[in-house]
Amino acid sequence: GFRKVVHIEQGGLVKPEKDDTEFQHPFFLRGQEQLLENIKRKVTSVSGLKGEEVRVRQDNVAKLLSDIQAMRGRQESMDSKLLAMKHENEALWREVASLRQKHAQQQKVVNKLIQFLISLVQSNRILGVKRKM
């Protein structure tokens, strides 16, 4: 691959005033452009990973994907349950409103009955008082 050529005057700790960086490669020769095709980028190899480690990582990825799919399924199930609960809640609130209206009507009827009974009792007292005399 390419090697950086360091000049003697640039070898120190002091940064040089001008940047004359040169590179060296066996296929990088003056006047031979056809050799440039052979120069390839250095591919970083996965030398630290063994085949077994790659399989373990693939297994981890597969497990992670299955876990995500399971979570997605649970999420969709919870979403459908939540939607059903919302509809049920709306129906219950409509029923509560209807029952409140019926209760108010019944309360009016009960109040009228009580007023009627009170008027009967009072009229009987008045008639009873008149009869005794």
Automatic annotation (TrEMBL):
The record's subcellular location field reads: Nucleus
Sorted alphabetically, the Gene Ontology cellular component annotations on this record are: nucleus
Keyword DNA-binding part of the UniProt annotation: yes
| Location, primary (coarse class) | nucleus
Write out the GO MF terms.
Answer: DNA-binding transcription factor activity; sequence-specific DNA binding
Pfam families hit by this protein: HSF_DNA-bind
Q: What are the HSF-type DNA-binding domain coordinates in residue numbering?
A: 1-42
Which keywords appear in this protein's UniProt record, sorted alphabetically?
DNA-binding, Nucleus
Is Nucleus a UniProt keyword of this protein?
Answer: yes
* Family listed: Belongs to the HSF family.
Q: What is this protein called?
A: HSF1 protein
* Gene this protein is translated from: Hsf1_0
